[in-house]
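Figure S4 source data
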Amino acid sequence: MVLESVDLTKYYGREIGCRNISLGVSSGEIFAFLGPNGAGKSTFVKTALGLLKPTSGTIRLFGKSPEDLHVRRKVGYLPENIRLPEWMTAEELLRFHGKLLYLPEKKLKRRIEEVLTRTKLWERKDSRIKTYSQGMRQRLALAVALLGEPELLFLDEPTSALDPVGRIEVREIITDLKRQGVAVFLNSHLLSEVEMVADSVAIINRGEIKARGKLAELLSGRGILIRGEIPEALLNKLKSRYQTGEAPNGLKLLGVSEEEVPAIMRELVLGGANIYEVRPFKAALEELFIQAVEGKNGADN
């Protein structure tokens, strides 16, 4: 495991930052860490980076403490809302960070060209950062995170300031890193973006993990789609018991097991519903997220 936490807990006084977080990330895995604002995502990431000390529990990067300098050289980090020194050029900024990483001059020169080319900023390497658009600054911050050829990369909202083309380019970078065996720990509110690249996901709310697992498994067999004419009283009854989603001429019931379907169908038919179609469906990550955060019908953990 490149990252492994066991019952990681962090309190701020009496306030919970995160509690009993146990998860693992392997080489070449894209791991999405999701949750609403204030859920505990930043607390966990800062503890994983050694910026905060846990109240209890453990976290290891490459089997060692996050504070180990050799470990830190294997880690890249793109924080959310990063502020870059506007008086520097892109090349100057990368050279500064390269010196902090103790990169030899020959390798540093090569890496600067590689990461700026990869983020499509090579032609603007001599421009002051103050002349960059928000999207260009975001890509430059990603270049900084990639400079040391990390084996574990933390990305906090990496596409938030990018246009659709920029988001596609960042997705391509992330999938390229996966092919190279780099582990990517991804935090994003753009769930559709996460769904395109993530191998595994954990959803945190109020400091605790509410759902986790392989994304394909979490989204498979997550409910049923019912099309038909359903009396309002029956609809309201179902909505009180299950997390529901809208569908043309019907509705989706999330978190319904195969064993529950016959009883639901009997209830609908006896209640006067005209059912035209019933079939399982694969839920979107957004529906899984809402179900886990709202706590309806319990997401898989």
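Figure S5 source data
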Amino acid sequence: MALYIVLMLLVVALIGYALSPNGRAVFFKRFAAGAQIRGAFIAVLALVLIALGILIMNGEAAWSVTIPLTMIIGGCCCLLVVLLRNRIAAPQRATHPKVVLAVGAHPDDLEIACGGTLARLSDEGHEIHAIVMSDGREGGNRGVRPDEARNGARTMGIAHIDVYSLTDTRLEDHNMEMVEIVEAKINEINPEVIFTHSIHDQHQDHQAVHYAVLRAARKHPSILCFESPSVTAEFNPAVFIDITDYMNVKVKAVEDHRDQAGKRYLRCDRLKGMANFRGAQGKVELAEGFEIVRLKDSIAGLK
């Protein structure tokens, strides 16, 4: 009886983990069709939980042992097969992990532009930090968007994210503040590479963040510029990072921004279409493209 109770508590803990943001991120990173696998995992554990409940309440009758045990063993075997068949192999861990800083203007900018890259770098053992300069109040609900940015960061595996409330659509009015924010973060974490917006971008906030980062990181040897939906035809990536195994993570991180649901540039087909295009340029299946301001060291296949 005591064993059944312990097993029941263990199953409840596993279900709770699968429902948590961290557990959700693991399923999307480590399994193809992560949403479906997560649902199957929870369903099978719920079945096991019911079987354990039957054992606890009717432990004396022979039928009440045979049927629940069959449910438990059968469910666990099916779950094991599904997990093994859909498992995505973990990437090779970096021999010398680096510190990475990503700077965006609004909640969802990083997920859309370089979500697959950040997720991959995190999986490889690099330490990822992020800055979001505004709470996106002009484009949505300022009460929920910062938390959505934190949820997206968790999905991507970002170690720490700072979300500020500088004036959305008027970030150029906060140039010195942004420079000071980025300088302080650089001094704090000493990143080996910095990701930020491109100068070839129609959005005034994206341009403002680009200039602020370049000014704050004027002595930094490695800066890459990512591709937002608002980039111009002049955006010309020279570096392509393979995100074939991280497309589902990128999509899920974007979906974490529920306040923005329905916007065309957030649609899964748009995200995958761009990744297909950049992948063709980079000679891989799916990729994210980056312009180089300057690049010193190798990271995630960058040379």
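The beta strands are 99-104, 127-132, 160-163, 193-197, 223-226, 239-242, 287-294. The chain has two domains: 1-86, 99-295.
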